[in-house]
Model the fold of this input.
Amino acid sequence: MREGRMKRTVLIGIAPDSFKGSLTAREAADCIERGLKSVLSNISVRKIPMADGGEGTVYAIVEATGGRLVWKTVRGPRRQRVRAAYGITGDGRRAIIEMAAASGLALLKPRERNPMVTTTFGTGELIRDALERNVTRILVGIGGSATNDGGVGMARALGIRFLDNAGRPLPEGGGTLRKLAKIDMSGLHPRAAEVVFEVACDVDNPLVGPRGAAQVFGPQKGATPAMVRELDAGLRRLASVTRRDLGVDIADTPGSGAAGGLGGGLMAFLRAKPRSGVDIVSESVDLAHKLKGCHLVITGEGRMDGQTVFGKTPVGVARVARKLGIPVIAIPGSVGRDVGSVHGIGIEAYVSALQETIPEEDLAARGPAMLEDCAAQVGRLLALRFRGRSALRRREQQREAGIP
Done:
């Protein structure tokens, strides 16, 4: 039996990110809707699947713009063949590429992880295909990489040559960058100069040093301490040659260390402009327009913690909702350290969907029901507020009518 009965229809915006390993953003929005409607009557919802430049960005923008997916067989991070999709917006003018689709860590088994040899070549193949479809803008989301090659593999797929002292092409992988002597841009795909490139990035790490690509992100990609030192030295060499041959300094540029240096490679070789991924997605799906008229917004992501405030989806949603004067509640899959910091960016409350500790491999099977149940509990709390308002209005009306 439904708990909440309201005389007016309440419009709730549902704008979550994907829940990694469990739900896409669309599936998460559907679960939240079912949970709310199981206990609340007289509500309508407006579902806006979101992303922050990482997983789910292609689908969010394609769905919002009436676009389409393009499937290609490309080279994976260990040069294996993989099927990868990228998106083209409904007007055919913009391509959206997630580097993880071609060069991501999820494409490798743990024993296959080795940033000394992994490559971003497949990401470059997706970019090349998009260029040949006459798009005018290309957005590259760069989360979840298996690589530490500074974007050299990506650039090689677009015709740029990276040579050693003998004029020979360098082998692929971050482990060869220390031998780089020259960058030859003469073979770059001719349409690259006609296209505006954007890189969706939610970290500000530089290319090299203690906060650089190798030292911060290398270990999670399989790098030993010795490998980290060699990879960092290779990226320093890449930065030095890039500064000399291209006149671009990426060594300390914020965001250049993202995705194993792919951020820096996109900036240097394609003049890509770094932007907040969630801001790009918010604009692309016209989030502000879609939230207008909502009385409440519910957002969420797989895990919410102190890092959420640094450009994750709930932050972008809350930022837009705050400008519209709409309160925001978050339903993350789980919460972690310093999660309370989200209150400072406009999230009024958060409620974790995880009811118990479960193995990661069980999330896909059990996560949806937990999210739906959590949304139902949020709905029950909202029903209490609605009933309380109704009771208060009745008492005020009775006093005005002289009824004790």
